[in-house]
Amino acid sequence: MSAQRIDGKAFALGLRERVGIAAASFRAKTGRAPGLAVVLVGEDPASQVYVRAKGKATVEAGMESFEHKRDAAISQEELLALVDDLNRDERVDGILVQLPLPPHIDEAAVIAAIDPDKDVDGFHLINVGRLATGAPGLVPCTPLGCLQLLRDELGDLSGRDAVVVGRSNIVGKPMAALLVRESCTVTIAHSRTRDLPGLIGRSDIVIAAIGRPRFIKGEWLKPGATVIDVGVNRLEDKKLAGDVDFATAVEVAGAITPVPGGVGPMTIAMLMRNTLVAAHRRAGLAPPAGL
Ligand code: NAP
Fold first, then answer.
1. What torsion do the CA atoms of 224, 172, 72, 105 make, to the nearest 10 degrees?
2. Within a 10 A sphere around the Cβ of 152, how many other Cβ atoms?
3. Ligand 1 pocket member 171 (CB < 6 A)
4. Residue 29 known to be catalytic
5. Per residue in 102-120, pLDDT tens?
6. Is 266:275 a contact under the CB 8 Å cutoff?
7. Which ligand 1 atom minimizes the distance to the CA of 263?
């Protein structure tokens, strides 16, 4: 039987609508809209596309968008001064510095300079620690989006065996921490893992965050498994493919995210959600439930 397709695009659209309603209610209570500041350094075409999409989504959700574009030659000192200004700006609830930054800038130092309570990317070490210890904080958008899709599909995740393939700081590690928080039994796999097919074959949940097109084969999967494919790989024919071989996986899995239209749209939706949550916390209000 063919697996159910998890429609991340539709889920993200619904979530963005709910964020828009909550943003209007925040505005009615506080007299101002939640604000997201995005900093773009240089002319990287992919980064320009992402920043434009984030700005558009922010405005569509009824929030205020502040875009700060700077030349690639900006000094680290000048960039840190901009972050400091945004930290102090009362209209700004979320700060996102689009990565990658030019090689002469120390990314870790820039992330460390962001006020952790405005760190809507969830990359600040304070937020990494909060996630690891279960304290409320801001969680990276892509893994948080994956978790929402999983919860929507499976309900309670407790006790399930999950494998996260990939151990990056932006996807794999926070994803594993979130699944531990949900009481899954979690294995993190990476390029040195000895028996990846065996591990995957024992898992109820498979998260693929590798960056290799169609790497995970359908025959490796446990029948009925739920598969979340984070991978976005551009093929020679310009089409997009995930890290999972969708054609074979769909025959074995119980449910699977397509690429495109699965995890991708969730990332921006979760950025809107994180900005809204940050705005509520900064205003001393409880973040809206169910977002
Ligand atoms: P990354 O930093 O390059 O990390 C890739 C991970 O995959 C590493 O931990 C690596 O292991 C592991 N890996 C590589 N080859 C492997 C193999 N043969 N077997 C098992 N593990 C292997 O990538 P990332 O930033 O996490 O991104 C992963 C994918 O997700 C990419 O396709 C990226 O484009 C996509 N992505 C999508 C979104 C979205 O919004 N949809 C957001 C972020 C990323 P080692 O640590 O041992 O090297």
1. 180
2. 14
3. yes
4. no
5. 999 999 999 999 999 999 9
6. no
7. 41
